[in-house]
Amino acid sequence: MRKHQWLIVGITLLFTILSAIYAARKPDIYEAQARVQVDLENAQSRQGGAVIVSGTSDPAYFNTQLQILTGPGLLRRVVKTLDLEHDDAFLRPQSAGSTTLQNLLRMVGLGSAARKETKDSESKDIPLVDSVASPTSYNDLAEAKRLAPHVGVLQASLDVNPVRETRVQSRDTRLIDVRFKHPDPQVAAKVVNAIVEAYRLSNMERRNETSNQTTEFLQRRIAELQSQIRNDEERLLSYSKSRAILSLSPDQNTVVDRLSKLNNQLVEAENQRKNAKAALDSYLQQPDAVAGLVEGTARYSDAEVKLSELQRQRAQLLVEYTEEWPDVKQIDQQIAVLEKRVRESRNRGTTTFMTSLEAAYSRAFAYEQSLRESFNQQRSEVLSQNESAINYRIIQQQIDTSKNLLNGLLQRSAENNMLAAGTPNNIHIIDYSLVPELPVGPKRTQSVMLAFFFSLVFGVGLALFLDYLDDTIGSAEDVEKMLHLPALAAIPAIGNVSRRLLPGGSAAQTLDANSALLLHSDTRSSLAEAYRQLRTSVLLSTAGRAPKTLLVTSSLPSEGKTTTAANTALSLAQTGAKVLIVDADMRRPRLHSIFKVDNHFGLSSALSTETSEAEVLKIISRHEESGLYVLASGPVPPNPAELIGSEQMRRLLGILEANFTHVVVDSPPIASFTDGVLIASMVDGVLLVLHGGKSSRDVARRSRQLLQDVGAKIFGVVLNNVSLRSHDYSYYQQYYNSSYNDEDEDGMIVNTKA
Prior knowledge:
Blueprint: H1 5-25, E1 30-38, E2 44-47, E3 50-53, H2 59-69, H3 72-82, H4 88-91, H5 100-107, H6 119-123, H7 141-157, E4 158-165, E5 171-182, H8 185-243, H9 250-285, H10 287-295, H11 298-320, H12 326-422, E6 427-431, H13 444-469, H14 476-483, E7 487-492, H15 518-521, H16 526-539, E8 549-554, H17 561-573, E9 579-583, H18 591-595, H19 603-608, H20 613-618, E10 621-623, E11 628-631, H21 640-644, H22 647-659, E12 662-666, H23 675-680, E13 685-691, H24 697-709, E14 714-722, H25 727-736
Parallel strand pairs: 7-14, 8-12, 8-13, 9-11, 9-12, 13-14
Antiparallel strand pairs: 1-5, 1-6, 2-3, 4-5, 10-11
């Protein structure tokens, strides 16, 4: 993940700066706060003329008030009161005056919060509403729909919370804080004051509406009763005149009273007869219900218990005996007798119960008939004595009843008026909102810190994901972990810029980026030291003696194998050894151009014909400047793989081993061609060159497997073109140059490719 550190830093800085700019451009938010007190809407009663107020708490009532404060019905009224539909300060608020630069300075603690100064706030510290608009009708859906967007804006910025006492311990209060946020402090104060004022007035209107409805109902009933009493009195007067009724004698009153009592008794007898008939019909339609009553008796229950006990004993006997066993038969007889007795008891009880119901009905019917006869007889007597007096009495009773009801309604109306006049509003505004001077938001610093945190997390996650997708080998740790091979050297990349030199080197020295003989160009650079370290690793790779023949190959083209082969051979020659470098890459030969030797005769010439040792040595060229011996590839043959894999190649290597201290062979990439694999089985060891940060792990594994399949001895891996500025290379730099001074100079980077 370290190689992606600048990606992480860039993403973090980008999103943090964008978040800071966005937060700085957001307008200041001001919060206005008002406080209301919600007393309990207590039940009221009259005892001895006094109003008794119950103090029972009702959490549901308090929560209901919280919902009313944020409900669309109340907020529609606020929108109409303040005409927020056409208020530009509400719809298109302007910034409080602080610039983006000032907001940025405030985020880093170098500025103070801007104070909002307006003409309104100077002339009117508490922006109150003069009047509250009428509520929207339930049937006015068009108005509700038109005001809905503005109501939504109010709800989004409105915050209603109960106040809790926390000085000693958390306790509930009857106070509610109403807060509203808006970029314009004047608008924020006006809105929150309008909300609490509309809330107080709405509550009073609701209470008055309930009282008015009760008053209207009572007045309507009083008028109806007064009209009815007046009509009944006129009818009574007309009736007494038409029947010439002057007074009622005591005898007549006694007869009427008796008739009234008989009438009451007859009504009661009818009810008794109907109840008896209903009970009889019910049990006739549901005989099982009668059986259930009979079964609930104590005698029946005892029989059932005995029957259950006998059945249990029979079941126990059947476990060991059959139904023919004497004891089982005896119990069966007892069960049969007992079941018969139970049935008879049930039938007998049912018959007795139904008989009692029929008798009760008969008695009730007879009693009713008796009373009816007495009533008819008494009525005939009364009618015969003074039928007019009875009618007069009935009308008079109706008048008295109506007067009593009228007196009750008049008393109730007076009480309702007194309660309506003496009941105060249980909603009180404790504090109106002043115009806020300091903003409460937005929380710019917090937003920027969150943006920094999440962008950092995103950058780290992206770096980890890129590492997961990275299939290349970039360090010695990757070589040892992925290929299980030693990393013999890490060759740094060189460019035409100032270089990191070893002590004694000239800072003015430059390297030719097109030259492959990098070691010969500058023997004191860190690059030269890397090749010398590679030489040491090669010489110590075999026990007993240094390897005679060495194959330098790569997985794919352009990984630097030819440059590595040339500089490895050059480093071996610097020890005084007689070193030959062989260009076995007949498909893309380069050594003849590097060492500037003739390529008309070479390896292909020696392999295509029977060549003696003297003839082989004759076609070998000497590079005077470096002291190396070079065997060029020769003309490109049509069948390079057949020549390389021939016995003639093995014999040729034997001749070269006998005449040179070390033979370094440059072959084609083994993942693309079989030439290198064929040579690998003929030499003492193989150096596998990989391009740092570009060579694929899968291809490198396949190359290793190809070499191991032919029994080649792989000395290790040369990691080529490693950046001096990478964290991974700093490890190699310390490893290779531990004996040198720590002079901090710039490195040079170039891509050296085969």
